[in-house]
Amino acid sequence: MAEIILVKPGELTLKGGNREAFERILHRNLKAMLHARSPGTTRIESLPGRIYIHCDSKEGAEQAENVLSHLMGISGWARTQKTEKTVEDVLAACLAAGKNLHESGVASYKIEARRADKSFPLNSYKICCAAGNLIGSKVPGLRVDVKNPEEVISVEIREKAYIYGTKKKGRRGLPSGSAGRGLLLLSGGIDSPVAGCLMASRGMGLDAVYFHTPPYTSREVQDKTIRLAEITGSFCMGLRLFIVNFTEIQKRITEQAKAEWTTVLLRMAMMEAATLIAGKTRAKCLITGESLSQVASQTIENISCTESRAGFPVLRPLIGMDKEAITVLAKDFGSYETSILPHADCCHLFSPLHPVLRGTVKEANLLYEALELRGENTKTDLLFQALRTAEVKKCGYYL
Ligand code: ATP
Ligand code: MG
């Protein structure tokens, strides 16, 4: 049976002159995501302030709902009945919606009606009364509660009549691709995928970089990070994951630097390498999952040291959040279960017992320069070599 889903765009309705551009991007993203999931089984109809997805079948509608749960820029959606604009058809659809609510365990409801087409014989108030009376007589277990209903049945009389019950919440935010690109430093932990998803929810397109140190870091942690890139990518129309081998750089740091500085120096090298990649991916910023003072490398002094090697603004959407709040988001974005799989990454493997807590930018850079990671020529330039051999993987692609 054919199904219709009504989708309501989110805050982009507030964006004045930009609204049309945002809606175009939203429409393009939705189309690409639906096409990737189930080519040819859905049709999109865009009207001012709303989008209808016409699905061939129940399965198609389920796929479409999965897509909507990953789409940034919508406030919500609902499975919808579309009828002719006759009182009889509209009331029958309201009754069906009431029965559905009752069957799904809902105890109280109210009706909200909007009559955009004034030629419809009942005004909004009368639609509510007539539908309420009908549902009351046929579905006695379902109670009207206008102040605090569990669910709302909405009736909209437009070019056709649309009737819908249970609404699902969208992810809000802005459509992916409406706010430039960023490069996410993605590790196998809980924080960085959440940082990426949060920036994606502001409309930022993403690519990601993962630094690994085989054989010290395992294939498992790489696979886990790829999976996290897939999840993050599913919220921003896909991303490219750069997998960069940092073994030689890690070795140089471990062999030559004072033990307490190794983590900060490694982070500085990551920032410099990420800056070089960002220059090639049209990224305008770097993104990390840092949260203030969560670990030694994330004191404000050490953050200043790492940032001194970044050639772009570094966005840290989690900086003021604690682990509990970050975990709630990780569960919501669906990355948590993957993040907690037990595999240590290079930062944890090589972290010193007593790291510096308050490094100065000056000392950090003197120590960093002494490592000579950039070398005289391409052969001795360890960063160049690491980037030259980087593997690139497309993750969570829709475009
Ligand atoms: P996460 O949960 O994201 O791993 P964390 O709590 O483990 O964060 P750190 O290990 O200090 O914190 O890392 C801080 C940030 O540095 C990460 O959120 C990530 O953005 C970046 N980062 C750390 N390790 C790597 C890595 N191996 N590759 C790419 N980025 C990394
Ligand atoms: Mg980490």
Description:
It is a single chain. The chain is α/β, with parallel strands linked by helices and 399 residues long. The chain folds into 2 domains: 3-169, VC0802-like, CATH 3.30.2130; 181-395, Rossmann fold, CATH 3.40.50.620. The protein is built from 14 helices and 14 strands. It starts with a strand and ends with a strand. Adenosine-5'-triphosphate (ATP) is lined by residues 185-187, 189-192, 209-211, 270, 288-290, 294-295, 297-298, 345-347. Magnesium ion binds next to loops.
CATH class of the largest domain: Alpha Beta
Largest sheet, strands/sense/barrel? 8 strands, mixed
Cα-based radius of gyration, to the nearest Å = 26 Å
Helix content: 40-55%
Total domains, how many? 2
SSE string, helices as H and strands as E: EHEEHEHEHEEEEHEHEHHEHEHHHHHE
**Shape type:** elongated
* Strand neighbour order, sheet with most strands: 2-3-1-4-8-7-5-6
Count of helical stretches: 14
| Main structural class | alpha/beta
> What is the quaternary state of this protein?
single chain
What is the average of the pLDDT values? 92
Give me the CATH fold name of the largest domain: Rossmann fold
